[in-house]
Amino acid sequence: MVQSQRILLIDTEEVIPGVTKLNLRGRLDAPSALMIDNTFATMAGAQERLIVDLSRVSFIASAGLRTLIAGARGLIARNGKMVCLDPDPLVEQVLVRSGVDRLVPICRDISEAVRLVSVGDAAGRGDPEDDPLPFNLEVARTMLGVRRVSAWVDELAILLNLSGETEYALRLCLEEAVTNIVNHATPEAGVEQDTVALLLLANASKLRMTIEDRCGAFNPLDTPMPAPDDPAPEGEGGLGITLLRRHADEVSWERHGTTNRLSISLPR
Length: 268
Prior knowledge:
Number of helices: 8
Strand content: 25-35%
Strand order of the largest sheet: 1-2-3-4-5-6
């Protein structure tokens, strides 16, 4: 049995021949996940049919989700099967909202779990990297909102296992886009909630983002795209949007009713 500094316990037991139950107890937060990553991967790597018992896990964060995803992908690559057993309702909510249940099905009782890993389709509804996986965030149209966007990118980079290059491009595009809205957009009269809404759809090859605000019509792409050999601009105008456009595969803007919608696509 392995015990982390945050009191996370991990052990295994054989349910029936060929089916192993991996038991987790405690908080599956970032420090705990770091402590058990190698142990979990080793235990999962030695199995073909694995049931992960989350009934005594009281909390799970993005780092814990990453541990489960890595273990599941390793099993699936060897034609193995993995399910989660009886998570706490709040833990289950995180699994569903993050899309991890697409990769690792959730079972309510041990008999159902054994059946799924033994004969059923325990590959879930598709790897979150194969089917678009949605992430949403709404922030105030302030520089504090920009800081929250940066923290969100930290979370996404862990959960989606982004490369350093992709994380950098995602952070730059989102921060530049939201900062541009904060600094240059003008609120519409009568709009009660001055916020910016972000939606990210992630699959195996693309990150697709939409950024919406309800300010007056404002197209940041009206600024001409400079040629690569043009001299650097003397002021700040348009520099951030130029950086965004050069990092993204596709960028477009539209006015949808009373909403500005900026769409951005990045390679994974």
